[in-house]
Amino acid sequence: MTFTAPVLNYTLLSPILILLGGALLGVLVEAFVSKAMRAVTQLSLTVGTLVLSLAQVWRIHNEVSMSAAMGSVIIDGPAVLLQASILIISIISVFLIADTDHFTALAAALPGSEEERHSLETGNQVTEVYPLTLFAISGMMLFPIASDLITLFVALEMLSLPLYLMAGLSRRRRLASQEAALKYFLLGAFSSAFFLFGMAYLYGYSASVTYAGIRESVVGGSGNDVLLLVGMAFLTIGLLFKVGAVPFHAWSPDVYQGAPTPITGFMAAATKVAAFGAMLRIYYTVFANAQWSWSPLLSFIAIVTMLFGSLVAIAQRDVKRMLAYSSIAHAGFLLAGVIALNKAGLEASIFYLFAYGVATVGAFAVVTLVRDSSGEVTDLNRWKGLGKRSPWVAVSFAGFLLAFAGIPLTSGFIGKFSIFSAAYESGAKGVVIAGVLSSAIAAFFYIRVIVLMFFTDATQDGTSVQLPSFLTRATLVISIVVTLVLGVYPAPLLNLISHFSTFIR
User: Where is the NADH:quinone oxidoreductase/Mrp antiporter transmembrane domain (predicted)?
Assistant: First the structure.
C-alpha cells in the first residue's frame, strides 16, 4: 500500500487558517498577558484576524477551484459570498461582544458563591470568549464549503462546541444561562447523532462520503432508495436543528433568552448563514436529482415553521423570546429558497441571509441597552415609552423590526420579495402563500412593539437606556445603515451575488 501525501491549496484555505491562527494566539494571550492588558489585546487580535481573513476571502474570489484540500473543500462563487457574509456579521458582532459587562467574571464559579463575588469585586473579565468566537467562526467558514460528509461533520462540531460554552457565560441570571447552555448542548448532541446516522445511510447507499460520489449514485439510481431516503431524512434533521426549523426548534427560545445577548445575536445571525449555506450546497448539488423525494416534506416543514414562528411570537412578553420565534419564522422563509432549487433561489437566499444577519445583530445590540439596576430589561411591558426616553435607540429598533416584517425601503422587503419570487417561479405556490400570510401575522407583533415604544406613556419602574459604548454604537450604526441602504439601493449587492452564485459540482 502506497502512502499518498495530501495536496493542500493553502491560498484557498488561508481565510480559515488565519482564523485558527488568531484563535490559538488568543489562547496564548489568555495564558501570558496581564489582566490589565488582556481585554484590549484580545479585542485587537480578534478584529485584526477577522479583517485579515475577510481581505483574504476577497483576494481569492477569482481563484475558484475544487482542489483546496484533496476534494474535501470546494471554493466557488457561493462559498466566497457566504464566507464574506459570515465574516462581516462576525466583525459587527465582536464589537458588541467587546462590552464585557455582559459576561460573568469567572465562568467556573458557582452562581452566587463567594468565589464569584470575589471575582466581581476584583474586576475580573472573561476574555476567553474572543478565541472561542474565532474557533466558532472557523467552523462556520468551513461548513458551507465542505464537499464530503466527514468534513461537514467536523465543521458542524467545530462551530457548535464553542457556542455551547459561550451560551453559559452570562454575567447576570447565571442559572438561566447555564440551563440554556446545557439544553443547547444536549439537544445539539442528539442532532449530531441523527446527522451521523444520515452519513452512515448515505455511505451505505453510495459507498462514498463525498458529495460527488453520492450525487453520481443519485443520478444513476444505482443504490437502494430506502437508504437514500433515510439518509436524507437524518442528515436534514441535523441541518434543520442548526437553523431552528420546526419541529427541531425547541432549543431556540430558551437559549436565545438565557445566553448573553451579544452571543445570542452572533449565534442567531452567523450560524444561520453557515447552516443554510451548507443546506443550499447539499440540496442544489447532491440531492437535486432526487427533488421528488424531499421537496414535499421540506415544503411542509417550511410552511409549518413560518406559521408557527409567527403565531407563537404574538404571545411572547419577553423581547429575546419574541426575537427567537421571529428567527424561527425566518428559517421558514429561508427554506423557501432551498425548495426553489433554481439560480434565483440561490441568489435570493444569499442576499436574505446577509441582510437578515446584519439586522439581527443590530436588534440584539439595542436589547443590551435597555436596563435597570439588575441588568438588561427584556420584559416588553417595561419598554413602554422607550421612544420618549431615548428616541434614537427606539427608532433604530423600529427600523430593525420593520426590516424583519419586510416593509418596503428596508433590506427585509428586498429579501422576502426575492425569495418568494424564486419560490413562485419554481412552482412552490403553497409555500409562497404561507409565507405572505406569515409575514402579515409577523407584521402585527412587530408593529405592536413599535406602538408600545412610541405611543404609550413610560412607567417609573427604574428602566432606562444605557449610553452605548463606542463599539456598541458602531454595531448599531453599521447595522442600521446596511439595513436601509440594502432596502433603498440593493442593486450593487444583487448584481455581485448574481455574478458569483453558481455552484461548482
Answer: 146-441
CA 279 to chain centre: 13
Q: What is the CA radius of gyration of the chain?
A: 22
Residue 48, phi-psi category: left (phi > 0), alpha (psi -120 to 50), beta (remainder): alpha
Q: How far is CA 123 from CA 35, 50, 83, 116, 379, in A?
A: 9, 28, 36, 11, 29
What are residue 210's DSSP bridge partners? 148
What's this model's pTM, rounded to 2 decimal places? Answer: 0.93
Alpha-carbon 145 to chain mean position? 16
- Quick: pLDDT tens for 386-432: 888 888 888 999 999 999 998 888 998 999 999 999 999 888 888 99
Query: Distance of CA 203 to CAs 217, 281, 359, 440, Å?
Result: 10, 18, 39, 43
Helix (H) or strand (E) holding 375: strand 375-376
Tell me the three cell numbers of residue 165. 460554552
List the beta bridge partners of residue 464: 371
Closest CA to 175 of 265, 109, 262, 101: 109
Determine the Cα–Cα distance for residues 69 and 84; give it in Å rounded to an integer: 20
Query: Hey, which residues does 465 pair with through a beta bridge?
Result: 370
Instruction: Render the burial of 7-44: b for 16+ CB within 10 Å, e for the rest.
Output: eebeebbbbbbbbbbbbebbeebbeebeeeebbebbbe
Cα–Cα distance measured from residue 460 to residue 18, given in angstroms and rounded to the nearest whole number? 50
Helix and strand numbers (H, E) in the chain are 20, 3
Domain ranges of the chain: 10-500
pLDDT in tens, 59-113: 887 665 666 777 788 888 888 999 999 999 999 999 998 876 677 766 666 666 6
